[in-house]
Amino acid sequence: MKLSRKWLNEFVELSLEEKNDHDFAEAMTMTGSKVEGTSYMGEGISRVVVGKIVEMVRHHDSDHMWTCQVDVGGERLLQIVTGAQNQKVGDLVPVALDGVKMSAKDIILKLNELGGANGIGLLDIVENRLVGMKCRGVYETPGGTILYAAHDYLETLCLDKLTMHKKQELAITFAELVYDGQWYTPLREALSAFVDKTQEHVTGKVKLCLYKGNVIKAGAWSDWSLYSEEIATFGEDHVYDQADSKGFINLFGLPIKVQAQVDAKNAKK
C-alpha cells in the first residue's frame, strides 16, 4: 500500500521533511512499520488530505470494487472508487481533493500508473506502412488513452455538430501526415490552426472510471457547454413548438420527395 509522507506525518511524530529516504525508512521501521520502498511522485501533486469512510456500497459494474462516500471535513462528501478489500466504514484514507493542479508531465506519469494498473491503453493492430506493407503493431499508452477519452468526452459538450464532425473527418488526414513524417508541411500547419480554433472553448471537468481495460464516462461539466436540459426536451411547448416540425420535415425531405417522384415517373416508361 502506498502512502503519502504528508499523510503519515499527521499520525507519526517524525520530522519527515528533514529526512532522506533511507532515514525515513529506518525511522518508520523503528515504529514497527515495514517500509518496502519509497518513490518520488512529483512536486505538482498537492492537497492530499485524510478522509473518513462513512459509507460503502458495491460498485454497480463490479463485485470486486466499492463506491465509498468519504468525509474530508467539507460541506459535502467525496465519492471515490476503490478495489481495496480490506477497507471498511470508519477507516481513514488519503484523498486528493478536487482541483488538484499538476504539471503535464506529472499528469501523464500518474495516468500511466493508474491506467496501467487497470489494463487501459493496450492496442494490438495491423498497420498500413508508408511503403505499402502491412505489419502488426502492439502498443501500450495508458495515460494518452485516458487523456484522449476525457478530451473527446468534453468536446461532445462544447463543440457544435458541424465543427465536431469536420474535426473527426480531418483527424484521419492529420494522423496520416504525422505517421508519414509530414509534420513540417503547409497542410499540417493549416490543420493545426483549424484544431486550435476549435479548442478555444473546450475546457471543463471530466470524471472517468477505469475498470478492466475500460474507460467509463461518469460525468462532464463545462461553463461553455452547449447542452441545455431546458432545451433538450420535446415535451414542453413553450420551449419546443411541436408545430414547427411540420414545415421542417417538408423542407428537409423535399430532395427525397423529388427523387421519389422522378423514379416513379421513369419506372412507368
What topology emerges from the helices and strands here?
Elements (H helix, E strand, L loop, with lengths): L4 H5 L11 H10 L17 E11 L7 E6 L6 E5 L9 E5 L7 H14 L4 E7 L5 E7 L1 H17 L2 H19 L6 H13 L6 E7 L2 E8 L22 H9 L1 H14 L2
Antiparallel strand pairs: 1-2, 1-4, 2-3, 5-6, 7-8
Helix pairs in contact: 3-4, 5-6
Q: Would you give an account of this structure?
A:
The protein is α+β, with helices and mostly antiparallel strands. It folds into three domains: 1-39, no CATH class; 47-100, OB fold (Dihydrolipoamide Acetyltransferase, E2P); 105-221, Argininosuccinate synthetase, chain A, domain 2 (Alpha-Beta Complex), CATH 3.90.1260.10. Helix content is 38%, strand content 21%. The strands form three sheets. The protein has a four-stranded antiparallel sheet with strand order 3-2-1-4, with no helix packed on it. The protein has a two-stranded antiparallel sheet with strand order 5-6. β2 and β3 form a beta hairpin. It is extended, with a radius of gyration of 27 Å.
